Amino acid sequence: MFEEENAQWGLVHALVLDGKGSARSIARTELDALELQPGESLWLHLDRSHPQTRTWLRKDSGLSEFVCDLLLEENTRPRLLPLPDAEMLLFLRGVNLNPGAEPEDMVSVRIFAQAQRVISLRLRPLRATDELLEQLAIGRGPKTSSELLLYLAQNLTEKVQALVSDLSEAVDEEEEKLDSDERYAPEHGAVVQIRRRAAGLRRFLAPQREIYAQLARNKWPWFVEDDADYWNELNNSLTRYLEELELARERVSLVLDSEDRRLNERMNRTMYRFSIVTGIFLPMSFLTGLLGINVGGIPGADSPYGFLVASLMMVAVAAGQYWLFRRLRWV
After folding, report:
1. pLDDT in tens, 170-220
2. What are phi and psi of 32, to 5 degrees?
3. Most CB within 10 Å of its CB: which of 183, 215, 269, 297?
4. pLDDT tens digits for 309-331?
5. pTM of whole model > 0.85?
6. In this structure, are residues 22 and 141 in contact, taking their beta carbons and an 8 Å threshold?
7. For the chain, first and last CA: distance in Å?
8. Cβ atoms within 10 Å of 20's Cβ, excluding its own
């Protein structure tokens, strides 16, 4: 209803949670005079790239200069920072599902949260917040500020599960092809890409798992009673995904090692055959070189059977070498 008007101020969404699982939209102009009723919470979702966002945060949001600096800094990693008066800063990462983007290039969402207000900032669209709006639209969304954080984290984690499953299936396919076809050669670039994507995901998911563990251990006064249990489940989920990513990286290494070993074996067989051929022809090359020198006294030089005798000698030498190589089990 107010999206176009709010977008001029860098405000993506402005919602008041009614405490029952639904929410109503409000205009940017209503913020200054807004009075929340008991059980209600305010969620402001801002576009960090919009110039009005920076202005509003520093002048009208009521946040300290320190908090504004952290919310607006360029590069962040997942982190949890407790603040005075039972407030917090929470930085999370989500899978990048925007068109043309790499999923492991994870999107950052920066959150300031207190008992009845949540301010979140994003630079690029995030599917998790869109799903949160859909949940609120049907009356099955979060009821409080703490549940809003929990729902957002759950939506982010679900996207990770799908991506981790895709990476595991890609490794499964490569292993099956290697097992079923001895002549199959995996594409080196594609396999390395799987390992690179797993490493990129792990870079952000490892600290995010620690954040979930902290939220499960340290309960803020305005958290709902069973929030800690849900945060603990999210921590366990990320732990499982990280283990699967680590396993995927190890399996990719095994696929690459297997391919390298097969290439080395093929190269060794080829070099071995070349060595056998060289060993057979080396004595014959010596004989032809010896008989071809331009000096007097070469045996058979004046005989009409000289070439035939020399040829038979080389055939006999080759046959003798082949017999010897067979006795030595070189061939």
Report:
1. 888 888 877 777 667 777 777 888 888 888 888 888 899 999 999 998 888
2. -65, -35
3. 215
4. 778 887 888 888 778 777 777 66
5. no
6. yes
7. 83
8. 11
